[in-house]
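User: Please fill in residues for this 226-position structure.
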């Protein structure tokens, strides 16, 4: 698991994609902060992370996860994964950890903004919870992206479907029924607004585990076919 995570993480930053994602994340945060300053003459970092989660993170996750299994299947190198010492569950989790680590780099760098604005009162006690839950949301997003990537050999299709699925809650209501648990960004918005709930954390964790299990089933199916 950790070997896969380290390998994938290095691949991301040996190529331009890791740096592009980091640049987009920090640039987006800077733009949102600027618009907040101009619009309401104040910066609430909880709101900044909320907008990042809704409109920026889906795109970044789509870019980061599109190669997870699609490239392996396209190049027919997934057989090497199946014969590796790592178990399938470890491979899946390792790939998700690599994505989370890549976004984690951006989040760590974004804390510089928080420190710069701390003296202006832009930091409140909820920010630590907001950031911690943001990383949990990243795990859920990455789980979706890796799952979708396991279903196709085309990286572009994997990226587009991941982005579409993660962006939908920002533009369409999923209601209050069972489908509301698919609206990950809406659940995170409640946390950013100070409505922290253990139920939301359980929902995010359950969602991530479900996606991992579905990916596992798909990889087992592929292994049998090969």
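Assistant: Residues filled in for all 226 positions:
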């Amino acid at each position: 698991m950790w070997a896969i995570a380290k390998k994938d993480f290095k691949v991301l930053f040996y190529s331009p994609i890791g740096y592009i994602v980091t640049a987009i994340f920090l640039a987006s945060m800077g733009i949102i902060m600027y618009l907040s300053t101009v619009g309401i003459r104040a910066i609430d970092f909880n709101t900044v992370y909320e907008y990042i989660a809704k409109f920026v993170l889906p795109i970044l996750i789509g870019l980061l996860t599109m190669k997870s299994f699609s490239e392996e299947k396209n190049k027919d190198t997934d057989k090497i994964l199946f014969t590796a010492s790592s178990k399938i569950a470890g491979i899946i989790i390792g790939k998700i950890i690599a994505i989370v680590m890549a976004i984690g780099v951006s989040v760590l760098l974004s804390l510089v903004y928080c420190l710069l604005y701390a003296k202006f009162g832009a930091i409140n006690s909820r920010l630590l919870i907001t950031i911690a839950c943001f990383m949990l949301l990243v795990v859920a997003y990455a789980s979706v992206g890796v799952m979708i990537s396991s279903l196709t050999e085309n990286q572009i299709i994997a990226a587009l479907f991941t982005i579409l699925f993660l962006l939908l809650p920002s533009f369409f209501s999923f209601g209050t029924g069972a489908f509301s648990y698919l609206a990950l960004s809406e659940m995170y918005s409640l946390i950013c607004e100070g409505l922290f709930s253990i139920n939301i954390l359980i929902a995010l964790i359950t969602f991530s585990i479900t996606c991992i299990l579905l990916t596992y089933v798909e990889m087992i199916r592929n292994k049998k076919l090969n």
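For context: The longest helix spans residues 88-117.
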